[in-house]
Amino acid sequence: MAGTPAGRAVGAFLDHLAVERGTSRNTLDSYARDLRRYARHLERLGVDDLSGVTEAVVGDFLASLREEGLAASSAARTLVAVRGLHRFAHREGITGHDPARDVHPPTPPRRLPKALPVDDVLKLLDVPGDTPAQLRDRALLELLYSSGARISEVVGLDVDDVDAAERTVLLDGKGGKQRIVPVGRPALRALDAYLVRARPSLAKRGTPALFLNARGGRLSRQTAWHVLKTAAERAGIRAEVSPHTLRHSFATHLLEGGADVRVVQELLGHSSVTTTQVYTLVTVNTLREVYATAHPRASGGT
Fold this sequence. Notes:
This protein is mainly alpha-helical and about 300 residues long. It has 14 helices and three strands. Helix 3 packs antiparallel against helix 4 (about 70-90).
């Protein structure tokens, strides 16, 4: 296609990127590969001039990428190159219109939250030892899983935010929104052990913070994340563990146990139930697996 009007337009566009835009060699190579793929698509349609390209042609090219199994992110990257080509051709007067302007990249698949099985959570929470740091870490992890709080919310807690009598904790969420969340008895026992036997020795200076570091200051989010990661390694958990792992597990386990999604929404502090509904996809996948294993007609057999 190099000798066709479309091929010459592609060459001019790549030269423009290299000379006038100073685009890196890696990016140029990537654009060239993507546009060669696009050029082959146009050839199959008998289009040798960009003036003959319509929005439907560009949309059909994008659909063909997905049919070939290209990931949404890769298809989106390819579309960036195609849109850049047509924008350049229109601006330079090579074509009278820009057919790719209103073609949008594919929506990437919704990533399901990664939740741990209940048995793995219990192993992670089982922090051995009775040193001040170990008592603190156990209380921290128990509270994260019991409340579904973000790590930033838990390290931001003050001692007075925990109401042991009511078995609740007051969390400061995003946008300054506060919410009261119930706390389970195991977490309260771990908190009591930490407050009585560990926090006094860590509190070297007066501070209202609930969780303290070795210097007596408020525990940082980074240190709390390190506590979680260390606990996962100790428990032999091979799955990827992130700062939100216990929060995701909290939500998933509640829904699997029959909790209403709107209740879980309130507990997580989501402003919209739509945000929470991603967890229902996890439970549907679990139900599908159980169905496929247990139902005699699930696989279409006799």
